[in-house]
TrEMBL record:
Signal peptide: none annotated. SMART domains: DEXDc. Residues 978-1122 form the Helicase C-terminal domain. GO terms for molecular function: ATP binding; ATP-dependent activity, acting on DNA; hydrolase activity. This is Helicase C-terminal domain-containing protein. GO terms for cellular component: nucleus. Residues 896-922 are annotated as: Disordered.
Length: 1230
């Protein structure tokens, strides 16, 4: 009776097929002999009930011998006994053939009515084993059954032998119901039923069959290919497709009763482009984005969890067909799916440059009058007011409590009501405990008196939107508000830094419509203490990809921020969307040198980043409540690639993201073409020399370390040194003066020691190939040491400028080296000094006076120059630590050579040191040690006076002097490009990764008088926006020299139509976003991008990584450059660049003409005997290039110099006025 009492509840559930879902069908032969059919089931077939004794010996008329149930039947019996399945069957006799049993499998949903009874029964029958062990066993057994079931309605509804025969012929599986007898063991359940033991089971294909009610094809390539199709598609490709297929905004919920009439009117007005307070017209896609964001805020919906697959069944049960949901994680079947509530917010992920800031401003304007509401978790307790309230007070408080937007009716309200409403601010109270519910559980509060033990604070409701922006684009929000919002419509507060919060209280903030706050201000203690008492209507994080961090202080504060609606604004929430957003066009004629800035990404990392936003910022449950749930319910299933999960992930992303596909945008907005060209330059003489010296250092290290152990630079322990070395090698492609003479002396000595090393047999120790590397290393080291210009540049770290025609008066006092009879070499400071002297003395008609003034200027110049040179040397040593450490490794190897050979040990030091600090040593500075002493300057000037008799002739010669080239191929190219852009009025952006490249470039532009502005880290954050404004507003062809680190996100620089990268960028995401600063909404002209790289160098190898077999692959690895196997292989080849005999040192200023139809002739006068000056002249060559004749003293260069000198004087004057004046001395008379 007890057993019967326990079984009645479970049997009442399992014997009622209406509680079950039709799963699938199996076909069996080799049936056992049974005395009678089972009891009739509700579907008209027979219950499939197996004997209680698992080891019962069976007999099969067709198979013979002692038999037992087969493995697949044992699996089914395991699930039936535990109430997961019920099975019915019917036997059909085929014509003259075997007897076949058709078996129907019904699955019991986990959420069936009475499921608690079912769970208790399973625990009892499993002898109270751990639930996790039961679930694992169930998943294993069910997973194998899923792979062999026939899901077609045809199989399910077979009612005759003829139908069965037709179905078998069409292709299905037949299983033996019995197998040779062996003793049963529960361990065998789920372990022996492997139809394809050597092939990985593809759940994706099986779920596809289940959802689409397909049969099974047991043989042939179609079956094999179908099963493995999903596993052949990379996760990254699938995720990109999911991103691409995120639905553009639609408004299916707009007709819901849950959306108020006022809310519907607001959304319809947005779609009709009737947004109050906005003076700019929106594109259709922008209006749709605004409306969708507002709909998300108004109407959160319940959506099915992504791990649940909906199965629509056409199989007829006892009553009717029944749909169900299949959990792809647990393999459970449920009637009613688990859901999540979409957030009141999300991620605005429109493409870079499509006006996300304007979309947000329109959202704020459209919902200006709405208020934040009291969160549901804070409605559970209200403190009663002991005083009796007046009716007006009660109404005002209720309006505040219910967040009624009373300002929408302000025209209808009497003045006294308006006054009362303005004086009262709605609020709710929160405990200082982190979580009120957990506090209730911990303390077991029972009464109101218990509640009072906890201190409470008021949190005020408001209609304010808080926008937190990166510091570098804070100013852009101010400009966008001025540009798009009508004056006075929004009350906006701006907070740039913590000092701007002084004197501000919560009343000031909640009286505003919008707060624009830089992130550095947001994370300040003053901000934290102020904002914790405000429940914001809306919280927007601009460039919110930073919210994917798990350790950032800003992420923690954003997570704790109290707000009704939360938005992350970013065109690049993940690397995958960054790649998707890049859309560069290319001409077919330019295919050989065009590349796009797309990058590969890691799907796992991408989804993890979205998960961080979902959990930490948007706080979407259930993921926000369980740190591991995102991984188990989203990440792992996606990587396992089950059927339809990509579509379900896409549906989930559509609930979080607001974005348009580019196809939808381009139906209305067409950005001008974007052409991205790779420019391969022939390295200059000094480029080759610098790169070869790096190659020599690496080659010598590889040989002498024998490419093993820690002495070898590519040993894992040497990663920091190798990273610095490779970085400096990349810097050397612009210009490099990091090697000292002592460095090369040491390198030559080490190579010679290695070349002389012998083995025990007296043969050369190293292979012929390695000896050849050592010989080349010695050759190029000596070539550098023998070059006076290299020695001088190494000593004073100046770019070499080659100037022709400058009189000896200037040459002898300012040049750093003589190159030929007519050409001398100068550094930029020396040329700028020459221009300054000429500017101040261009009208002097006396030689003696000119000489005197020259001496007056030159003496302090050199004294100050050497002071700066010492500081520059110290800074260089910080940059070249990798070199010194590298040569130290080489020198250590030479000591090993000395121990095993007869060559003398090299004992030379790398640099001369004083007190542990590096300085300009005598050897490294020998070219300059006696340069420009006062007495020598006087003698040189005297000699110059004897040779230049006529002052007029002297001035004329000065005017005709010209720059014939530089030591850097990239510098000469950029000078030609930017000079032509200035003359044509074209604005350009030049991105640099390494500060020394920008330093040399701006020196050249100063010399030529080319206008430029800086956007760099050394500028104050407040000054950078001013330069951007000046750049955009200027009518001239300016260049903006921008640090790539500051160019990644948010900036709008559509004034520029030319973009240059001084070197290839390894991180494609950074490069793509930098390009998008100019190529975005608002750009009306074609944008042309050029990336400079030297031929046959590490830069060209970086470029080649973008191609495979001549076709662009648009991928590059995310890891460091030194970790890339291809880049390592290139560096370890130790290819030296060939320097031809008689190769010119200087690189002329030449580049392909921007406009071949325009003749850029000389500006100004050609008169050299008067006061007129020459201007740069670009001559078009037959090959389409333009070579520039650059006078050292042009009108534009002197005007810029004069402007600079005036600014310096103004700064000094201001500084002097601000400085405290010394106390006035009083004379005491005695």
């Amino acid at each position: 009776m007890v057993i019967r009492h326990r079984l009645e509840p479970i049997t009442s559930i399992t014997n009622d097929l209406s509680n079950f879902c039709a799963l699938g069908t199996l076909f069996f032969y080799a049936l056992p002999r049974v005395p009678a059919n089972g009891a009739e089931a509700p579907d008209g077939w027979f219950w499939f009930d197996t004997p209680f004794n698992y080891n019962l010996v069976l007999f099969s008329p067709s198979a013979g011998g002692n038999r037992t149930f087969s493995a697949i039947v044992a699996d089914i019996r395991y699930l039936v006994d535990r109430g997961y399945l019920r099975v019915t069957y019917r036997v059909f006799q085929l014509h003259g053939l075997e007897t076949i049993a058709v078996v129907r499998l019904y699955a019991l949903p986990a959420d069936v009515k009475g499921n608690t009874v079912v769970r208790e029964f399973r625990e009892t029958i499993s002898r109270f084993k751990k639930t996790s062990a039961q679930d694992t066993k169930y998943r294993t057994v069910m997973g194998q059954l899923i792979g062999v079931l026939d899901y077609t309605a045809t199989a399910w509804n077979i009612s005759s032998s003829d139908q069965l025969m037709d179905h078998i012929r069409s292709g299905t599986l037949l299983f033996p119901m019995t197998s040779p007898w062996s003793e049963f063991s529960l361990k065998k359940v789920g372990s022996t039923n492997k139809l394809w033991p050597n092939e990985e089971q593809s759940l994706s294909f099986e779920l596809k069959r289940m959802a689409e009610e397909c049969s099974i094809l047991p043989t042939g390539p179609t079956w094999s290919n179908a099963r493995n199709q999903s596993s052949n598609v990379r996760a990254e490709e699938r995720l990109l497709e999911a991103y691409e297929n995120v639905k553009s905004p639609s408004f299916a919920h707009l007709n819901s009763d849950k959306v108020s009439k006022l809310q519907k009117e607001i959304i319809h007005s947005i779609l009709s482009d009737e947004i109050p307070g906005l003076k700019s017209d929106l594109y259709t896609y922008q209006r749709q984005s605004v409306a969708k964001m507002l709909e998300r805020e108004y109407f959160p919906v319940r959506a099915v969890m992504p791990n649940l697959l909906r199965v629509t069944s056409t199989k007829q049960l006892a009553t009717k067909a029944k749909d169900f949901f299949f959990d792809m994680n647990t393999y459970q079947i449920v009637n009613y799916p688990e859901t999540f509530t979409t957030p009141r917010g999300g991620i605005l992920a429109e493409n870079m440059g499509l006006g996300k800031t304007l979309i947000c401003l329109a959202l704020v304007c459209a919902s200006k009058l709405e208020l934040s509401v009291i969160p549901p978790q804070h409605h559970f307790y209200e403190r009663s007011d002991p005083q009796v309230q007046s009716l007006s007070t009660y109404c005002v408080r209720q309006i505040g409590k219910e967040s009624i937007p009373w300002k929408a009716y302000i025209d209808r309200l009497p003045s006294n009501c308006i006054r009362l409403l303005q004086e009262y601010t709605g609020f709710f109270e929160v405990s200082e405990a982190d979580n009120m519910m957990s506090m209730l559980r911990r303390t077991r509060l029972r009464s109101e008196s218990d509640m009072t033990r906890f201190e409470k604070r008021k949190v005020y409701l408001c209609s304010t939107t808080l926008v937190v922006t990166p510091d570098n684009i804070w100013h852009q929000w101010t400009h966008e508000i001025e540009k798009h919002v009508k004056d006075g419509y929004l009350n906006v507060l701006y907070f740039r830094n913590k000092d701007s919060l002084l004197g501000v209280d919560h009343k000031t903030i909640i009286a505003s419509d919008m707060v624009i706050m830089a992130i550095s201000c947001f994370t300040s203690p003053a901000s934290v203490s102020l904002m914790k008492n405000i429940h914001w209507k809306r919280f927007i994080i601009d460039e919110g990809h930073s919210m994917t961090s798990k350790t950032s202080n800003a992420v923690y504060l954003a997570k704790e921020m109290s707000a009704d609606r939360k938005w992350v604004i970013t065109g690049t929430p993940t690397a995958g969307l960054t790649r998707l957003h890049v859309n560069e066009e290319q001409d077919k004629a330019e295919q050989s040198s065009v590349y796009t800035a797309k990058k590969t990404f890691d799907a796992k990392d991408d989804l993890s980043r979205i998960g961080a936003i979902v959990q930490n910022f948007l706080k979407i449950d259930p993921w926000a409540s369980s740190s591991k749930l995102w991984r188990s319910s989203i990440l792992e299933p996606f990587l396992a690639a089950p059927y339809n999960f990509d579509i379900q992930l896409q549906e989930f992303l559509s609930c979080v993201l607001v974005r348009h596909s580019m196809a939808d945008v381009e139906t209305e907005v067409k950005l001008p073409p974007l052409h991205h060209m790779a420019v391969f330059l022939e390295p200059s003489y000094f480029d080759k020399l610098s790169i070869n010296l790096y190659t020599a250092v690496l080659a010598t290290n590889a040989v002498t370390s024998e490419r093993t152990d820690r002495d070898y630079m590519f040993h894992p322990n040497n990663r920091p040194q190798l990273r610095r070395l490779i970085t400096n090698l990349r810097r050397a492609t612009f210009f490099w003066t990091g090697f000292t003479i002592d460095d090369l002396d040491a390198l030559v000595a080490i190579c010679k020691t290695a070349l002389e090393k012998k083995d025990d047999a007296g043969n050369h120790y190293y292979s012929p190939e390695d000896r050849q590397l050592l010989v080349k290393s010695v050759y190029f080291s000596k070539k550098a040491l023998a070059n006076p210009r290299w020695r001088t540049a190494s000593a004073i770290q100046e770019m070499n400028y080659y100037v022709e025609g400058l009189p000896q008066l200037f040459t002898s006092s300012l040049s750093i080296e003589v190159f030929s009879k007519d050409i001398s070499v100068y550094g930029a400071p020396q040329l700028l000094m020459a221009q300054r002297i000429f500017l101040k003395n261009r009208f002097v008609r006396s030689n003696e006076l000119l000489e005197t003034r020259l001496l007056e200027e030159v003496r302090p110049f050199w004294a100050n120059y050497w002071k700066k040179a010492a500081g520059k040397t110290r800074r260089r040593e910080n940059d070249r630590n990798g070199i010194s450490e590298k040569i130290s490794y080489v020198e250590g190897n030479s000591q090993k050579i000395q121990q095993n050979g007869s060559a003398p040990k090299h004992t030379g030091t790398l640099v001369t040191t004083t007190g542990g600090k590096r300085r300009l040593s005598d050897s490294s500075n020998e070219a300059m040690i006696s340069l420009k002493k006062d007495s020598q300057i006087q003698n040189l000037v005297k000699n110059a006076h004897e040779s230049d008799v006529e002052t007029a002739t002297l001035l004329g010669k000065i005017k005709t002097s010209r720059i014939v080239g530089t030591a850097s191929a990239k510098l000469s190219y950029m000078a030609a490009r930017l000079l032509e852009h200035q003359l044509e009025g074209t604005k350009s952006i030049v991105f640099y990764e390494f500060e020394d490249s920008a330093y040399y470039l701006t020196e050249m532009l100063d010399i030529l008088g080319v206008g430029y502005l800086m956007y760099a880290t050394y500028l104050k954050a407040a000054d950078r926006p001013k330069n951007l404004d000046q750049f955009s507003d200027s009518p001239n062809g300016l260049a903006l020299i921008m640090d790539l680190k500051l160019a990644a996100h948010g900036l709008n620089i559509v004034a520029a139509t030319r973009v240059y990268f001084l070197n290839p960028v390894w991180d494609r995401a950074v490069e793509a976003q930098a390009v998008k600063r100019a190529h975005r909404i608002g750009q009306k002209n074609v944008v042309r991008v050029e990336t400079l790289m030297l031929k046959n160098t590490i830069e060209e190898e970086m470029y080649n990584k973008r191609f495979k077999d001549g076709n662009e692959i648009n991928e590059i690895s995310d890891h460091d450059l030194i970790d890339d196997s291809g880049m390592q292989e290139f560096v370890m080849r130790h290819d030296f660049l060939r320097i031809r005999n008689g190769e010119e040192e200087q690189k002329p200023v030449v580049a392909p003409a921007v406009n071949v139809e325009r003749r850029l002739s000389t500006f100004g006068t050609t008169e050299t005997d008067g006061y007129g000056l020459l201007e740069p002249k670009g001559s078009l060559q037959p090959d389409g290039s333009r070579i520039w004749d650059l006078p050292l003293f042009s009108q534009t260069s002197l005007e810029r110099l004069s402007e600079h000198m005036s600014k310096v004087k103004e700064k000094k004057a201001v500084a002097n006025e601000a400085a405290p004046k010394p106390a006035e001395k009083r004379v005491k008379f005695i």
